[in-house]
Write a structure and sequence with these properties.
- Helix content is about 50%, strand content about 15%.
- About 10% of the residues have low confidence.
- It has a domain of about 180 residues: Beta Polymerase, domain 2.
- It is globular and about 90 Å long.
- The chain has a 5-stranded mixed sheet with strand order 1-2-5-4-3.
- A hairpin with a 4-residue loop joins strand 4 and strand 5.
- By secondary structure, it is α+β, with helices and mostly antiparallel strands.
- The site of guanosine-5'-triphosphate has 11 residues, from helix 6.
Length: about 280
């Protein structure tokens, strides 16, 4: 999947460590001896190593919070999807993917924002460490799921970016939510940020191809031509999404006449009872 988003239930705690030279820890303070002329003593090295280990353990603990936040959001969404299935015999969510931002990417983002690498800056300034991508069948399912999730008492809605009502100039469409989720530990409750991207299957199909183009752009002779074609695809996908939704809504309105036996059979089926003729 593009963008490291995965459909798995387990979220790895330490993705991407050491992907870069110096593991991305470019802004960490160094002992004065390393920079100036003072000779470096063994004590200084031990003390710095200890300090660095403390910081790394602190960040590892923090990553556990984000991993837990992902699991909580995934569970909430799965419950909503199941509820819908039982009530309406239809799944609004096609699949859920998630990813934990790598520690290297977190460092790079802080660096880009001109911020020092420390726990407080990570917690307060990076909103997308926990990332959940929800792929829905239809466009109205996107808003239905977003509303059902954000009206839950323990979810705090921080920011909405609606790239469906206002697509990006390149044609990108998705609903982005930044939320705060409580994570319950033995003695504390911690609220952490999470980014939720909700889109249709078609929007996701488009975004994964566009994502690939972003990476290959510099090696393509005429990327503008491909970008233009992608924009046209986005317009066609929008039309298709709208058409499909219209057809489904019309079908939703059709009442199928059923006799008593058929009604009972249908209820048994909803209970998960395997019927003989199937
Ligand atoms: P960052 O992009 O995370 O620095 O923050 P932001 O607040 O500017 O992000 P925004 O909500 O606009 O987008 C966040 C994420 O959405 C990105 O990291 C991508 O995963 C996805 N996204 C946004 N724009 C595009 C786009 O043009 N194409 C594709 N393929 N994905 C996009
Ligand atoms: Mg991001």
């Amino acid at each position: 999947m593009s963008d490291e988003y995965k459909e798995m239930d387990e979220v790895p705690l330490e993705p991407g460590m050491g992907e870069e030279e110096n593991g991305g820890y470019s802004k960490m303070d160094l002992p004065a001896g390393l920079l100036g002329g003072t000779p470096i003593t063994q004590e200084m090295i031990f003390s710095k190593a200890n300090e660095m280990m403390d910081q790394m353990l602190d960040i590892k603990e923090l990553m556990l919070c984000y991993s837990a936040a992902i699991q909580e959001i995934r569970t909430k969404l799965s419950i909503l999807n199941k509820e819908y299935e039982v009530r309406y015999q239809r799944n609004p969510i096609n699949n859920i993917q998630s990813r934990l931002k790598s520690q290297v990417s977190i460092m790079q983002k802080l660096d880009k924002k001109g911020l020092l690498i420390n726990r407080e800056n990570i917690e307060e300034n990076i909103y997308d460490i926990a990332g959940v991508r929800v792929i829905c069948a239809y466009e109205d399912d996107i808003y239905r799921m977003a509303e059902a999730l954000t009206k839950q008492a323990d979810i705090e809605l921080v920011r909405v970016k609606d790239y469906i009502k206002e697509p990006k100039p390149n044609g990108y469409r998705s609903l982005h939510l930044i939320v705060k989720v409580p994570v319950y530990f033995e003695e504390t409750v911690k609220k952490v940020y999470a980014e939720i991207q909700i889109r249709t299957i078609a929007m996701d199909f488009w975004a994964s191809l566009e994502h690939q183009l972003k990476y290959k752009k510099s090696n393509i002779e005429n990327p503008e031509h491909l970008m233009q074609q992608l924009k046209q695809c986005s317009d066609m996908i929008t039309l298709t999404d709208h058409y499909m939704m219209k057809i489904r809504k019309e079908m939703d309105g059709v009442q199928v006449e059923k006799n008593d036996v058929e009604q009972l059979m249908e209820k048994l089926k909803r209970f998960g009872v395997q019927l003989a003729e199937e």
